[in-house]
## 1
Amino acid sequence: MAIVDDTAPPRNEPSMMVQIVVLVGLTVVAIAIGWLAGLYLSGSQPDARKPAEVEVVKASETDLAEAGARLGVVYLEPITTNLAGPAETWARLELALVFDGEADLVTAQTVQQDILAYLRTVKFHQVEGPSGFQHLKSDIEERAAIRSDGKVRGVLIRTLLFE
């Protein structure tokens, strides 16, 4: 029988010192790339306004109705009605109408009655979830704009409650 050498040849691995030098070198390169990327991104942003340029508006105490009248906002009375399906589900909706210019109370009441009539045709499954809420809000805004001949610029839903 022949003599066979079963010993594995010695492995030539890099020394621990070479591994540490490579690790430190890669870390320095990563830090430099991050620093340069930060400089590039901060240079592409528009300059912020200086604190001296900011106008200071002195606050005065006003009540909600007075502030709303100045801005063209009308807070509607709460709308409480049952939905089309299921019939035992009730909805309470508090809205504010944002007018383009001066607020018109007669138009606001007309819009409120139209929204009440619309809510009576809505089924509960149509308003479930965030997308249902968005669809309801866009439908209400569209109806308000049509009913007011474009005077209503937006509708703010203050409270929406289902029972």
Note: The chain is about 45% helix and 15% strand.
## 2
Amino acid sequence: MHTTSTYTSRAEVMKALAHPSRLMMLDALADGEKCVCELQALVGSSMPTVSNHLAQMRNAGIIAARREGNWIYYRLLVPCVLKLFQCIDAVLVSEAERMAQALGETE
């Protein structure tokens, strides 16, 4: 049995993932380190918004940053977080199949 603190920590990590732009950035980081400008171009948001998203993921321990001159580069700290995408996709497929079956039964 886990403690309430464990579940609270898990929820914080989940919150750090709970935005489409953050998920897009994580997917991009699966291919390797990216500068913040590349991530900004990917999601099409302002620099302050992208920086906020990156800070949330960094504070949750999902990504790390390093500075090289004027540039900041980000990388995944725990690439296994990408396995969560497979699980979520399986849920989405299952739900789509359930909905299609329900619609088929009502027609």
Note: The first strand starts at residue 34 and ends at 35.
## 3
Amino acid sequence: MTNLPALSAPDLAALLASRLCHDIISPVGAIQSGLELLDDMPDDPESMALVRSSTKSAVAKLQFARIAYGASGSSTAQIDMGDAKTVAEGLMSFEKASLQWTGERAYVPKNIAKLVLNLLVVANASVPRGREVEVTIEQLEPVARFTIAARGKPLRVPAKFRELLAGDATPDSIDAHGIQPYYALLLAREAGLTVSLEQGEESVLFRVEPAAQAAEPSLETDGPR
């Protein structure tokens, strides 16, 4: 399993809260700007369009975060993968890459659904605007197996994710920007799953499979980073 640095529960909660605020401050700020413009120019169509679009973006990000980062009920709660797909589609409709999602729909332990969504965020950050992210749910029972592929050029898998996957991070290096990939790998560890990364010249594949049946977590590169 990936060697993750230890964070206290208060630090983990605080950093995730910072990450959430970072994600929603932009659309909320745009809503405020649009409303201020409407104060000066009532019924201005461009200002109204800005408020509508930014409101939809903020709602999509919050709905996504509720499942990806939230408690989602008790410690034994299950999540419908159909709901996970819906919030992922909502988020990605405002992001730089398009989303393709295939696989069965079923209720799964919440950490499985949360892991899919958190790796989706990492994959989306790896490709430039106008490219594609593809989620393939291969199996959910009795154990989860899935892949997330990101296609585009140039590829830039977040450096913090690579550092964490390689087991090179320290507690002091985990900040509000690094907490999301940290949380993704923490979810994998809690679920007994292994994450590996395979990168080519124009695509990168995040593979998740049972830890007992996988090789050591790897970071394989077929082409230039």
Note: The CA atoms of residues 1 and 216 lie 7 Å apart.
